[in-house]
Design a protein that fits this description.
The protein has about 150 residues and is α+β, with helices and mostly antiparallel strands. The protein has one domain: Aminopeptidase (3-Layer(aba) Sandwich), CATH 3.40.630. The strands form two sheets. It has a seven-stranded mixed β-sheet, with helices on both faces. A two-stranded antiparallel ribbon has the order 7-8. A hairpin with a 2-residue loop joins strand 2 and strand 3. The longest helix is centred in the middle third of the chain and has 13 residues.
């Protein structure tokens, strides 16, 4: 599998990106703002990530999606390791905001991230429908950070 930087036609990855952020207008807020990387196998995208510069030395993973067939195979972890490498030298820390879900929290913790802060009611105030993940109704955005 190879990871490549996507510099044009980002919209072709929307089906994959929408797995991680299911509301289109929220996704559009950062789709073209950061750098985008895609992992391919046999010409098909299996994972995608958008990372932005948030200032103050922080880079942020805004979207990390893995195709269902490739989940729990190491693709997500490999993408995070790749992003860490890309951000080292230009940023002092990497952060990610996610729902307080039993699916995503253990993943980011296993990748070395530590809980940093909470944005109360982020999902209920910014999404036009209830968001559930792993059987949990998401309300707050939980930010995790990793020193680079």
């Amino acid at each position: 599998m190879e990871i490549i930087k996507i510099t044009q036609n980002r919209e072709r990855y929307l089906p994959l990106l929408l797995l991680a952020d299911e509301q289109y207008d929220m996704l559009l807020k950062y789709l073209h703002r950061g750098d985008m990387y895609a992992m391919h196998e046999g010409g098909a995208a299996v994972a995608v990530c958008i990372v932005t510069d948030e200032g103050g030395g922080a880079a942020e993973i805004k979207n990390l999606a893995v195709a269902p067939k490739y989940r729990r195979t190491g693709c997500g972890r490999r993408m995070v390791e790749f992003i860490k490498g890309v951000c080292r030298g230009t940023h002092s820390r990497l952060q990610v905001g996610t729902g307080d879900s039993p699916l995503t929290v253990p993943f980011y913790e296993a990748c070395g991230f530590r809980r940093a802060r909470v944005v109360k009611d982020f999902f209920t105030q910014n999404y036009d429908h209830p968001i559930t993940e792993g059987g949990v109704l998401l309300r707050d955005m939980v930010y995790f950070e990793l020193e680079l």
